[in-house]
Amino acid sequence: MKLLRSTDDGFVFQFARRERRLLLSILELYPLIPASYHRLSKTADPEQIAADQKLLDEALAAQKAENQRQLLAVLNEPGRFRLEADGYELTLSAEQVDWFLQVLNDVRVGSWLKLGCPDPSKEPPAEPTEDNVHYHVAMEFCGVVQSLLLQALDTRA
Q1: What total number of domains does the chain contain?
Q2: Phi first, then psi: what are they for 91, rounded to 5°?
Q3: Which residues form the domain of 149?
Q4: Can you spell out the DSSP letters for 56-99?
């Protein structure tokens, strides 16, 4: 996958057929971060901040629902992935790149959580198993796509 071009209207990315299939299967995991993960404070008395925590939970749920709606709309839009001789071309506006980064980050962090929050600097990484290999793949692939998207945004700076 690579950035083909940056235009005034957005960005055009190229994905090989396998990369497109992998991306679409990984995006099916969204949303992956559990609502209970986001806490206002780790030290405050939960009873004292319950109302504020509820507001945060509601705002995050609304944002995830909107991201999911937008993701489905964009990916199901006819011609969004145009088949070309060298693979598929995906065109995204700068705004779409921004929320796409949010969706990918949710899947990446959610995969990390599902894998038990591994810290390679403290322990050797656990070997993938049949039950969790898709989280390993999702976490790594999301990181690669996020890097590509950020590099594309950087071409505009």
Answers
A1: 1
A2: -105, 130
A3: 2-37+61-154
A4: HHHHHHHHHHHHHHHHHHHHHSTTSEEEETTEEEEEE-HHHHHH
Residue 45 lies in a domain: no
> What DSSP element (H or E) covers 37?
none
Asked whether residue 105 is domain-assigned, the answer is yes
Cis status, amide bond into 128, omega within 30 of 0: no
**pLDDT per residue as tens digits for the range 68-87:** 999 888 888 998 899 999 99
Using a 10 angstrom Cβ sphere, with 0-12 exposed, 13-18 middle and 19 or more buried, the burial of residue 12 is middle
> How far is Cα of residue 21 from the mean position of the Cα atoms in its chain?
15
14 within some domain: yes
Q: Which residue has 């950020």 as its token pair?
A: 150
Q: Within a domain: residue 52?
A: no
pLDDT bin (cut points 50, 70, 90) of residue 41 is confident
Residue-wise pLDDT for 28-40, tens only, equals 999 999 877 877 7
The single-letter code of the amino acid at 14 is Q
At position 122, the amino acid (one-letter code) is K
pTM for the model: 0.89
Which residue intervals of the chain are DSSP H helices? 17-27, 50-76, 94-114, 133-154
